[in-house]
Amino acid sequence: MSNFLSNQNLPIDSSLIIKAEAEAIQELECILNQKNSQLKLVAANGEEMTIPDSVCVVLRQVVQAMASGTNVSIVTHNLELTTQQAADLLNVSRPYLIKLLEQGELPYILVGTHRRVNFDDLIKYKQQRDIKRRQVLDELIAESQELGFYE
Questions:
Q1: What's the alpha-carbon Rg for the chain, to the nearest Å?
Q2: What is the reported pTM?
């Protein structure tokens, strides 16, 4: 799963994290990986709030990525995306995405004259595409091994 944050799509550069922060991130990762622990947020005034499970899942993913030195960016999305937003998420050009829409590969709706792509439909398409890519790659590797080109 990809991790996204911020409305500005600005990645947090892990190379900017100083050593003390890296140690704190490692410690936080250990805490987040504990089974059956209910996390709480404690404000400066001592007020406590239990962190919802859905937030813990995202927090765990972000901290694991940061602990491994991976850059992280989090993006919020509407349920319906513009064609440019959808293309950006698939990492394809907008014209290529339009072709997918017109060929019926991906459902869309019209809002006036503008196409909108449902976020869930886009994620399903991306997952199916990734599975197909992996299968084709595995087949190529197997054929290469049989022919002695790949060890």
A1: 21
A2: 0.52
